[in-house]
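Supplementary Methods. Inverse-folding protocol.

Structures were first reduced to a discrete structure-token string of length 335. This string, shown here, constituted the complete conditioning input.
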């Protein structure tokens, strides 16, 4: 009987083992190993211009030396970011994208190492664009306001020297209220509001409330529509449209027809004594024509004998939209 039992056990083990190997090889049985870890998300520099700087604190609370920002730098812990007049940058984690504009100082007290999320941001001075896909409670604060942004995109600025703060909403809706204030206003897309503070002995003036709370002295404006100029300069949607247009223009330039016989001027190509009609902003820089923006104007330029576009003349606003076109119009001068 023992020999019969041993034979049965042998054949059972043999065939069961073969069946299990078949099931595993065919995918019917999945291997239960440790789960593969997903790629970590961090607060990372995704765009940079100029030389913004940052400093961090170590685990003992000591401030580490100031460093220059670099592309793909990952930030964590207590972070202080500063930009000069010629620098700006974009930071991004899985939920929020920030653009920090020139002459700004931003403090992030607690940036988590594992996912790059943070629960507070303080603007010491300057301008910040906020784009978020989450309603997670985050404190956004300065010497004049303390906010809890909703999902959406907006621009927020703060000047501590001539105390003022302004919020401009691009997408979604946001509540704005001064620090420890009780009456908030809600901004919809393409609306803005400003708070003008006061100075007392060189400092921002506050009224003292109960429990050592303080509210800034000053005046909150009525909610106003955003200007086309503000949207053109700061809106992330307009920015994407402009990038698409630039890419399209670059594509067209690659397919551009050869220069005409006799062309001596470039960008755009022109023959001696021909004229070109181009738009410029208030800084004298060539810019795409957007009618309705007050500081963009149309100018006529003449191609001189040295192959240079010279003798610029401002065009009357009544004829500007007809003459200044995209692509740039080149032809017989109208004088």
């Amino acid at each position: 009987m023992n020999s019969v039992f041993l034979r049965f056990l042998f054949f059972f083990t043999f065939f069961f083992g073969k069946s299990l190997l078949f099931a595993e090889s065919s995918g019917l049985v999945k291997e239960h190993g440790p789960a593969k870890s997903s790629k970590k998300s961090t607060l990372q520099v995704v765009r940079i211009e100029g030389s913004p700087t940052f400093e961090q604190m170590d685990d003992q609370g000591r401030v580490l030396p100031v460093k220059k920002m670099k592309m793909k730098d990952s930030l964590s812990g207590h972070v202080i970011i500063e930009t000069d007049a010629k620098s700006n940058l974009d930071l991004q984690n899985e939920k929020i994208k920030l653009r920090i504009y020139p002459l700004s100082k931003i403090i992030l007290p607690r940036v988590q190492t594992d996912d790059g999320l943070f629960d507070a941001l303080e603007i010491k001075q300057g301008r910040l664009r906020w784009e978020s896909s989450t309603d997670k409670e985050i404190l956004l604060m300065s010497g004049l306001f303390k906010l809890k942004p909703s999902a959406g995109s907006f621009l927020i600025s703060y000047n501590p020297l001539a105390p003022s703060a302004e919020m401009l909403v691009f997408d979604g809706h946001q509540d704005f209220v001064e620090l420890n204030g009780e009456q908030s206003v809600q901004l919809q897309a393409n609306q803005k509001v400003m708070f003008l503070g006061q100075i007392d002995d060189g400092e921002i003036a506050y009224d003292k409330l109960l429990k050592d709370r303080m509210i800034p002295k000053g005046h909150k404006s009525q909610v106003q529509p955003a200007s086309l100029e503000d949207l053109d300069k700061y809106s992330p949607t307009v920015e994407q449209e402009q990038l698409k247009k630039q890419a399209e223009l670059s594509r067209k330039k690659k397919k551009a027809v050869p220069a005409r016989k006799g062309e001596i001027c470039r960008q755009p190509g022109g023959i001696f004594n021909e004229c070109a009609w181009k738009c410029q902003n208030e800084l004298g820089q060539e810019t795409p024509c957007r009618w309705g923006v007050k500081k963009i104007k149309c100018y006529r330029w003449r191609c001189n004998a040295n192959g240079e576009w010279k003798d610029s003349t401002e065009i009357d606003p009544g004829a500007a939209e007809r003459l200044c076109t995209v692509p740039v119009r080149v032809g017989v001068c109208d004088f």
